[in-house]
Amino acid sequence: MEKIAILPELDPGFLPAALWNREYRKLAASRPSHPLALAVERANGAVSRFDTVVLEETPENADLNYRYIERLVKFMLWAYGGWRVTVAGAPLAAERLRKAYSPEGERAFDHAMMGRRIYDRDFTVVGTTCDQAPEPKSVALKIGGNFAGCRIGFDLGGSDRKCAAVIDGKVVHSEEVVWDPYFQSDIEYHRAGILDSLRRAAAKLPRVDAIGGSAAGVYVDNQPRLASLFRGIPEKDFPTKVRPIFQELAKEFPGVPFTVINDGEVTALAGAISMKRNALVGLAMGTSEAVGYVTPAGNLTDYLNELAFAPVDYREKDAPCDEWSGDKGVGANYLSQQAVGRLAPAAGFEFAKDMPLPEQLKAVQAAMAAGDERAAAIYRSIGVYLGYAAAHYADFYKVENLLLLGRVSSGQGGSIIIEEAKRVLATAFPELGIEFLLPDETFKRHGQAVIAATL
C-alpha cells in the first residue's frame, strides 16, 4: 500500500479497512480478475448482496483473496445479518470460509450467533457461480415518530440506564441511573432495575399510553437474541430467562403497547426525526458501539447494524482483540469507551488496572475540560478512526449523514472527534460528501430515551 496520509497519532499501526479494500480493488483492476457476488440471507427470505471483483484463484493469490472476501463477509453478517452466506465466483475461498465459519473454526462465535442464537437456523456457507447468486430482497420498517399521548421511553446502556416520561412530545421527566449489568448472573438484577426506572417514569404521568425502549444487541419480537447487557447470565438460561424479559415486563403495564429495538436504530431515528435527515447512520459511542440506519426514504430496515463486531482495521498482527467475539480490528475497540481505555496509556494516562472503563472515560473528559493535551490526543485518534470507518460504512450503506451520540462524544472531545473525521474524509475520500451531525449535550445523553418513547 502507498503511505497513509493520516493515521491516529496514538495508534500509528492502524490499517483502515476502507484504504485496504481500495488498494485491493486497484490491484484487481490491473491484473487478471473476475466478478464475485457475496450474499447473506436472513429472516423472511430477505437478502443483501455485494458485487465486486477478485483476483484469479491461483495459489499466489489465495491468501490475499481470502483476506478480502472473509473481511467483507464478516462485515456483511454484522451489518445486515444472515444465517446463510453465498459466495458466488470463488469456490476455493468459499470452502475456506466454510471451515472458518464452523463450530470448530476461527469464526465459531459468528457461526453460533448467526445460526441458532439469532435466526434459529443452522448457519451455512454455500459456494456457487455468479449466475446462481441470490438476488437482493429488502424489507423496510416504518416505526417511530409517534409523539401523541403519555409515553415512556428507556435506553439501557452498559454503565447507566436512562428513562424519560413524555406527554405529547414534551419531556416531563428524565433521569439517568448508574448500574452494572454486564456480568450480573441473576436476571432479577436487570428486571428489577428496568422496572424501577419504568415505575418512576410512570409516576410522573397521568396514564401510560405506550412504552418504547432501546438497548444494545439484537432484538426479534421484543426478545433479546444477542445482547451484551446479559452476558453474565449462564448460556443455558438465556432462552428461558433472557429472551422473555421484556415480554414479562410488559405484563406489569397491562394493555400498554411495549416495543424494544436496538439502541443504534433509536439513534438513527433520533437524527431522522429531530434533524429531518434521511440516508443517515446513527452511531452511539458508549460502552460499546451502537449503530442504526435510516434509508434515503426515511425507513428503518431489518438489518442487524451490529457494527461493534464488524472489522474496521485490517492489520493482522497487533490489532486489538474483541474479548467477546475473539476477532481483531472490530468496531467496538475503536468507536466506544473501550477505545478511550485502550489509547489512554499511549497518551500518558496511568490508571489502575481495575479502574472501570466508565471511570477512565470520566477522568479523560475531566482532563479534556482542563485543557490537557493528552486527552485531546485520544479524541483526535478516535476521530481518525471514525473518518475511516465512515468511509468503510459507505461501501455497505447509502449514507449522506452520520449522527454521533454517546458518552464518548460528550463535551469538547466530541467536537474534536468530528473535526478529525472530517479531515480524513476531505483528504482521502472527498467524493463521499458525508455530513457529520453532533447534537447538543442534553440530546446526546438523553435523546435516545426520549425518541424511544415514540416507538
What descriptors fit this protein?
Nucleotidyltransferase, domain 5, 21% strand, 13 helices, 4-stranded mixed β-sheet, 5-stranded mixed β-sheet, 455 residues, 17 strands, single chain, 2 domains, alpha/beta
Walkthrough of the structure:
The chain is of the alpha/beta class and 455 residues long. The chain has 2 domains: 31-138, no CATH class; 139-455, ATPase, nucleotide binding domain (Nucleotidyltransferase, domain 5), CATH 3.30.420. 37% of the residues lie in helices and 21% in strands. It has 13 helices and 17 strands. The protein has helices at residues 17-30, 62-80, 91-100, 108-119, 187-202, 238-242, 245-250, 263-275, 337-347, 357-369, 373-393, 412-428, 441-452, and strands at residues 33-41, 47-55, 84-88, 124-128, 140-141, 150-156, 160-167, 170-178, 210-215, 218-220, 223-226, 258-262, 280-285, 289-294, 300-301, 401-405, 435-437. Strands 8-7-6-9-12 form a 5-stranded mixed sheet, sandwiched between helices. A hairpin with a 2-residue loop joins strand 7 (160-167) and strand 8. Helix 2 packs across helix 3 and helix 10 crosses helix 11 (373-393). The model has no long low-confidence stretch (mean pLDDT 93).
